[in-house]
Amino acid sequence: MNAAALPATTRVAIVGAGPTGLALAVALAEAGVGSVLLDKLAEGANTSRAGVVHARTLEVLDELGASAALIERGLVIDRFRVRDGARKLAALDFSRLPTPHPYTLMVPQYDTEAVLLARLRELGGDVHRPYEVVKAEQDDDGVTLTMATGETLRAEYAVGADGMHSIVREAAGIGFSGSAYEQSFVLADVTMEWAPGRDAVSLQFHAAGLIVIAPLPQDRYRVVATVDDAPREPDADYVQRILDERAPGQAKITGMVWSSRFRVHHRIADSYRNGRLLLAGDAAHVHSPAGGQGMNTGIQDAFALGRAIARDRLDGYEAQRRPVAERVVAFTDRMTRIATTRSRVLRTVRNLVLPVVSRIPAFRTRLTTELSELNYR
Fold first, then answer.
1. pTM for this one?
2. Is the distance from CB of 347 to CB of 338 less than 8 angstroms?
3. In Å, what is the CA distance from 364 to each residue of 77, 201, 268, 374?
4. Residue 375 carries which DSSP code?
5. Alpha carbon distance 39, 25 (integer Å)
6. Where on the phi/psi map is residue 126: left (φ > 0), alpha (ψ -120 to 50), or beta?
7. Cα separation of 111 and 127, whole Å?
8. Of 21, 286, 18, nearest to 164 (Cα)?
């Protein structure tokens, strides 16, 4: 069912109603800029996917009037622990970061989307669905979007917030440079008995691969693991075997809420703009889930782009945000390769060096600030 009839024209057409598209629609609505937000799905996804909201994103959501409602739904975590097996390698504390939100908020992506949608509706907007954009054609005066139904929408600008396989990026003729990681990732939300408890995110190194265990609201846990070739829908037994191998004796799954497998790329769009076609979020950059920065970077893209459109300063958008994506992609790539190395020599060096450098206050501050994306203000 459509949230509203499709108008003939708008100032900004936004393709994709995930967190990036919703945040952009909210930013534009708050600035009094007309927009139409389109999504090809009949209703929003109900899977948790991204589960981390960092401090800088919460600052942005403060500006958008959406942070308080999201914090109510989430779980505040201010500590990360890094281990190799039972050996503790590092502990990171986010509680002293220079921000009103000195922590990481663990919250399923569907809650983030629900809060942003509620805020958009408070401002008089909504999502138009299901409208699948199949063509985007620009001329000197604007952009014409054509739907799979044959309907059209005329806009001054069109923004692709439509993910890695963006139709807007393709229409703009913008390349997406990078490559894919060899390993696949398993992602699962489970209920389980977890010996280390619910007060921290745990990152576990192992010769077989990386595993991250993060508490979620409703007594759930997010498990992310690298594997050579995961099944399409990993079941509880499969995830339990990974836990037994990489965190022996610490975890017992009692229920499976949701699971998935995915291949991870590290890519950046060659440009964020071609004329009246612009990109944000996963349409502009994709990278390893290490650090949980993908959705966060997209929401921050949306905030910056909304302000640029409202202030007629579009030329500054790419200059501001593309270097951030380059830094995030490089940072998460380094983290992933350090965490997943199969080299015994490199693992030994990593496990000797990390406990030493993690005792240095400047190193801990630099790492937590980078993870929290506070460097990108």
1. 0.94
2. no
3. 16, 16, 28, 14
4. G
5. 12
6. beta
7. 16
8. 286
Show Cβ contacts of residue 353 under 8 Å, excluding neighbours closer than 6 positions. Answer: none
* Own/partner pairs, 132-137, CB within 8 angstroms, 24+ separation: 132/40, 133/15, 133/38, 133/40, 133/162, 133/167, 133/168, 134/167, 135/167, 135/171, 136/15, 136/167, 136/168, 136/171, 136/172, 136/277, 137/171
Strand 87-93 to 79-84 pairing: antiparallel
Phi, psi of 299 (to 5 degrees): -65, -40
Domains recognised in the chain with CATH numbers: 9-62+108-178+266-335 (3.50.50.60)
Both tokens assigned to 272? 């964020």
Q: Which is nearest to 237 in space by CA: 217, 205, 219, 259? A: 259
pLDDT digits (tens, 9 = 90+) for 157-216: 999 999 999 999 999 999 999 988 878 889 999 999 999 999 999 998 888 888 999 999
For 210-236, the pLDDT digits (tens) are 899 999 999 999 999 999 888 888 999
- The pair of structure tokens assigned to 19 is 């967190």
**Beta-carbon neighbour count of residue 205 at 10 Å?**
23
Answer for the pair 221, 213: CB distance below 8 angstroms, yes or no.
Answer: yes
> Taken in order 224, 229, 233, 237, is the CA torsion positive or negative?
negative
Nearest CA-CA partner of 99 in 129, 46, 146, 62: 62
